[in-house]
Amino acid sequence: MNSSNLLSIVTFIYGTAAFLYIVSWVFKKQLPGRIATWIAIIAVVGNTGGIALRWIESYRLGIGHAPLSNMYESLVFFAWTIGVIYLVVEQTYKNRIIGAFATPLAFMAIAYASLSPNINDRIQPLIPALKSNWLIAHVITCFIGYAAFAIAFGVSLIYLFKQRKTGDKKSSKTGLFIHFPDAGILDELTHQMVTLGFLFLTIGIITGAVWANSAWGSYWSWDPKETWSLITWFVYATLLHARMMRGWEGKKIAYLSIIGFMAVMFTYFGVNLLPGLHSYGQG
Amino acid sequence: MNKETGSAGFTSRLWKLFASVRLTVVILLSLAVTSIIGTIIPQNERPEAYLNEYGEFLYKILSAFDVFDMYHSWWFQFLLLMLTTNIVVCSINRFSALWKMLSVKNPSFNVSKFRNLSDKEEFIDIRSPEDLKRIYMPIVSRSFGYKRIEETDNGFCIFAEKGRWTRIGVYVIHLSVILLLIGGLIGSIFGFKGFVNIPEGKTINSIRLSNTGKAQDLNFDIRCDNFNIKFYDSGAPSEYRSTLTILEQGKSVLTRDIIVNDPLRYKGINIFQSSYGELPPREITLNFKNRITGMSHKKKVSFGQQFNLPEDAGQFVVKGYRDSYNFGGHNLGKTFMGILTHNNGSPVHVIMPVRFPVFDRMRKGNQVVSVVDYDHRYYTGLQVTRDPGVLIVYSGFVIMIIGCFITFFMSHQRLCVEISKSGKKSKVMVAGTANKNRFGMQSRIKRIAKSLRINL
Ligand code: HEM
């Protein structure tokens, strides 16, 4: 079995976990949720194995490099970071409803990698510009940041659903929203995920700048990918400061967190549609 | 209170404006939104390209707002200046309060505040408060730097705190933002960025600036001794390597190889491997196949020099070379051009694509000429930059990461353990506050209470 096959299987395991988390939430049953946790753990372990195997395969091909060099590999790593951070959050907050919003994101990331015809899963040798330890640090930190923002996004969605429902009193006691965690906890969790993401995005942008400076002599050149990561950074910096102003709790913060994640997604996928330099992310 | 009027009122209103986080939110959002423009409209292209795309009218409006170089436009710089002022004013405004808090020797604690906390832990211990004091103090000391004991009516209170200094974390972050802006400014005023192509064996002492296209003298010479590309089996490039020598007044002072991601730095000037190209070759090995006799001859010849054909069939000269040659809509790649003169005929043009040795058969001449080999001569393309602000920017990077770490993951924690006599036993309350991460503090208090209880 090669790593691509293994990761295709992992895709379906993530899908199963996501499905069970959603079933557990919609039908308010404990058992599917408990199974979902185990399946999510298996998915993350398989994901880890897939990444490790791909790494080994690249050495067997004589072009050994960390499996973080193209779109396929970054999506697989993205799914992995979402999975790991989500499982930690689940353990900490003892709540599985977040899983119904977080694991589908991991599933979508790895499914897009495995199934999209536009994404090449072959192991390719590194072109000279990508041979840098700064690049590895850059990719890892960026994706930890993105994953934290992805979970903040999921939690913000839950928060908004919950707020909408508690507006009309009847359904707040029934329906899908009764088991949602307390609004205070959701708000706190959003904030924690955003700060985690902000730290790693900051390090990601910085390591990217240092890499650019060592590869072609300027740490910042306003190419669209760089600029969009800065835009994302501005949005989350806005969120952190908005929390300090009265009247900017909860809902508005949740909206900002959703806008921030849109910016993340655009930085990741959308920028390739724009004119620019950063095309090495393709492939 | 007297009514604020005139300039004093204006300055204080301005000060208040710049001290507000509301303005920060507005500025940060404005930066985020306006930055989008420059990613949709390509920057720094030639004016004709824009005229073509947008038409005369729109072009005039857009260029009036510097949209085609928006990150250096006056209004974008103005936003950055606003941000800087905002950070500076805000920091000054809050710093005295922060300083007071940090420098106080004996911070004040208020027992009733801790009593009112909802997530405090309470339990009964069979020992007397005096015994407990002896047992508890070392446990509290283990994780809190500052502590003191206050006697109360029927017992005592242990107050402890740690991480007071972490409150400077946000100032550290804001300082780092200023450093980045200053470093960037210094770089854009005193630095430059340019490029130069050096053929193997040649020496240069000036480069061309990227933004203006003007020449920029260096205070030394750079010679390219050698350029080399390595390929993977797949044909993709794996390494570009230039051997460079730095010369001062004609004397070589330093020789080093550079590859992508490993530049040469000399006297504040950075030299990066950025591109390469092929020069016309000087020596070519040609193959001549005589269609009449069926004989093949290899011959090593010099570019541009006429020579006699084998079997005395006439003369030949290699006159031209192109990196790519278009033939009937197909790109034939690297191609040599030559002129063949038979002893009794007029000159004929011969096209010799390197990749297609049989191409010349189409001419239907007596001789089929093809290229066997030639000496590869390259020029290396170097990016040359000077940026005296980079050290400040890098220190800003480090400080920003440290600041974020302090701000997000460390907190100012206060602890209150109140022990009061209740008959023969003691009643213990453990409560605490933190300026960050409420939930983390909750579980920390639980842990502390547990560790106190275990020491029965
Ligand atoms: C790009 C610029 C900026 C960045 C990256 C930045 C970053 C941060 C961060 C990460 C925090 C901590 C938030 C938290 O604890 O969750 C913070 C707090 C704060 N920032 Fe900024 N900031 C910027 C600009 C500004 C400006 C212009 C002001 C001016 C008013 C400002 C005022 C504050 C204040 C008052 C706090 C809260 C301090 C406290 O908690 O006592 N920031 N900033």
Write the layout of secondary structure elements.
The complex is a heterodimer of chains A (283) and B (456).
Chain A: H1 3-26, H2 30-60, H3 71-93, H4 97-115, H5 133-167, H6 169-172, H7 183-216, H8 224-242, H9 251-268
Helix pairs in contact in A: 1-2, 1-4, 2-3, 3-4, 3-5, 4-5, 5-7, 5-9, 7-8, 8-9
Chain B: H1 6-18, H2 21-40, H3 47-64, H4 74-103, H5 111-115, E1 121-125, H6 129-143, E2 146-152, E3 155-162, H7 169-190, E4 192-199, E5 203-209, E6 215-231, E7 237-248, E8 251-259, E9 264-266, E10 269-279, E11 283-290, E12 296-302, E13 307-308, E14 314-322, E15 326-327, E16 330-331, E17 335-342, E18 348-353, E19 367-374, E20 377-386, H8 390-409, E21 413-422, E22 425-434, H9 438-454
Bound molecules: protoporphyrin IX containing FE (HEM).
Protoporphyrin IX containing FE sits between chains B (21, 24, 83, 86-87, 90, 170, 173-174, 177, 407) and A (195, 237, 240-241, 244).
Pfam families (chain B): ResB
Transmembrane segments (chain B): 21-41, 74-95, 168-192, 391-411
GO biological process, one term (chain B): cytochrome complex assembly
